[in-house]
Amino acid sequence: MIKEFSHKTIEALGYYVYVYSDPDTRRPFYVGKGKGNRVFNHMDDQSENEKVRKINDIKARGKEPNIEILAHGLDEKTAFKVEAAAIDLIGIENLTNRQRGHESSVYGKIEVSTLDARYSHEELDPNDVTDNIMFIRINKLYRNDMTPLELYEATRGYWKVNIEQARKVDYVLSVYDGMVLEAYAPAEWLPAKATFMERKDSRDAEGVADRYEFVGRIADDPVRKKYVDKSASLFFPPGNANPIKYVWGKK
Q: Which of the residues 53, 132, 141, 215 has the least number of beta carbons within 10 Å of its own beta carbon?
């Protein structure tokens, strides 16, 4: 296997996306993107991580990983999109990548109806809000392939809220990238960590001392029809970074 590209090849490649595979099983174990000779750098990596351990295991067998270019001639932004799609297609759980692709929650694998709703959603009119609503933006926690349970857990905790106001809320709307993903009817608000949560990024007790979580259920269909898959952008002015927004309905 070559150790570097020629100058002519580098000029022709531009940005590219590559994959490392086990030579015996042909199973991919790492996806990356870069330009120049970035694709070869992992072979000399001395870091302590799963990717390096896999490469060293292959070398110990007297072999080298298969290194393939998935796509080339890309600009940097397109390379990010292709990388995200490739990681989602293979599955992060099948790779040694520590993180999903850049903006994979935007450009990665996504079910077609969800994708269509994201780009063609109807604006939620403030005048149509007749319930006491809490919007919760989960931008940092969201993934396209979340299960209903994962979406619920990402939405229900852990938040800095005014507990008196939170307990007046009829429905909690989970929001990502401006779109309402789901509506929940909270049964109770509790101090953070009061209930078991399977979420992998759950914080320790000290990190959530002043935060709360709710327990509840998915709202009834008439409520979901009113709010879900609609844009909440009118409720969040530009520059507003607060993940929590209360809207008191016009009942």
A: 53
Q: pTM of the entire structure?
A: 0.62
Quote the CA–CA distance of 240 and 56 in Å, as a whole number: 47
Q: Name the DSSP letter for residue 14.
A: B
Exposure of 144 in the CB half-sphere (CA atoms within 13 A): 26
Eight-class DSSP state of 190: E
What is the C-alpha separation between 180 and 119, in angstroms, rounded?
Answer: 12
Q: What is the DSSP string of 111-172?
A: -HHHHHHHHHPEEPPGGG--S-EEEEE-TTT--TT--HHHHHHHHHEEE---HHHHTT-SEE
Distances in Å between the alpha carbon of 88 and those of 63, 85, 213, 217? 28, 5, 30, 29
83: left (phi over 0), alpha (psi -120 to 50) or beta: alpha
What length is written for the chain?
A: 251
Q: How many CB atoms lie within 10 A of CB 127?
A: 7
